[in-house]
Amino acid sequence: MADADFSFDLAGLSHALELxxxxxxxxxxxxxxxxxxxxxxxxxxxxLDRLAPHVIGGAARLGEATAFAHMDPPTPWITWxxxxxNASVNQNLLHPATAPVARDxxxxxIDWIVPLFAMGGGHMVPGSTxxxxxxLWAARECAGVQAVAYGESAHLSVGKAAHILGLAAxxxxxRPSGALVPEALPVDLRRTALVLTAGTTSxxxxxxLSLCGRAxxxxxxxxxxxxxxxxxxxxPVLAGIERxxxxxxxxxxxxxxxxxSALILFRDAARAHSAIAFGGAYLAAPNVGVLGSHGAAxxxxxxTLLAWGREGTAARIDACMALAARLADxxxxxxxxxxxxxxxxxxxxxxxxxxxxxxxxxxxxxxGSCSLTTLAGERWIRNVAANPNFAIAAxxxxxxDALRTLGAS
Length: 409
Ligand SMILES: *Cc1c(COP(=O)(O)O)cnc(C)c1O
Fold this sequence. Notes:
The protein is of the alpha/beta class. 37% of the residues lie in helices and 15% in strands. The chain has helices spanning 10-22, 44-55, 77-89, 102-117, 128-143, 156-165, 251-254, 269-275, 298-332, 358-364, 392-408; strands at residues 121-125, 147-151, 168-172, 192-197, 217-221, 246-250, 262-266, 277-278, 287-288, 337-339, 347-352, 371-375, 378-384. The strands form 3 sheets. The chain has a 7-stranded mixed β-sheet, sandwiched between helices. A 4-stranded antiparallel β-sheet has the order 10-11-13-12. It is globular and about 70 Å long. Bound molecules: pyridoxal-5'-phosphate.
């Protein structure tokens, strides 16, 4: 008799879906999980019932109308369905034999996206941390770079990649808004990879992308703002990116994908890929990049783009940008508040003019609506437009209430 736990079980899966739709109780109401490995299992449906209040009930609500704090978006349900398919067929993209179609799907979705960046090809990785590492690895192999220069507001993964690769790290000064000061660039960049950020993590600033091509290798870390290239309206924010040697994009940020989903794109992909490829006796195709066995994150991404098209994808990103612009207007028009800078890529950074009140105002806002960031040693409130369902009117009302309470106290 076949083990039924490995078979298609519509009733069991329907139960899992019912839990997904119905569980709202937080983890505090749930039975605690065993502290040690259970000797005897409780069975599949009982395990789901036991876990749902933790995994679903205890989760941060990233798609809630109040969520506007982080670069983590809600995901469209087509990605839930295709992630289930992925888990079920469990393809391994390391081997053509264990992923006869999934490898082509990844190639297809890369082919769809590269023209937006004028890149030649690339591959998927679990995040832009890995995309940045992969890019700088290729830079070291292809261009012989020995150092990495980047704005000090670049993501920590850039310094981390330099460290792993044994490259000298040269952080450079940035403007208060977060963008690299171009005049601070070293004159001789013949042995240096220059990393420009398109959408810094703290403030969403875009470095001057006309600097692409100034160094032996230019990598654009577009982890956050890369998807603006899908939008006719906002693509020009990243003008110049087409002259980069490599581009990192986190699809699990502004392409609304489940983690872990990101892309590393190369202008000369054949050259870059061959520089970071390894063969092995048991491999039918060379292993390109950092990962060994890995799954088909391309399937939910391709499914989303198939369902929405460029236009539908851009519509969601444009909606987020419009929300950020409205929030910036709201802050600018309030006499008690100060805006750091006009938002370039959907990240809005602001605080009370009495800066000492920042933490208290933050604490008075709905949970999950704002985050905090520290710039030049000072605290600021930060919002990130990753949620197209964010309700700005309710946020404005909550902000007004919070300011009134602070003013009265
Ligand atoms: C989020 C982010 C990263 C890291 O990407 P992960 O997908 O979290 O690994 C790198 N650079 C920037 C600018 C980011 O915002």
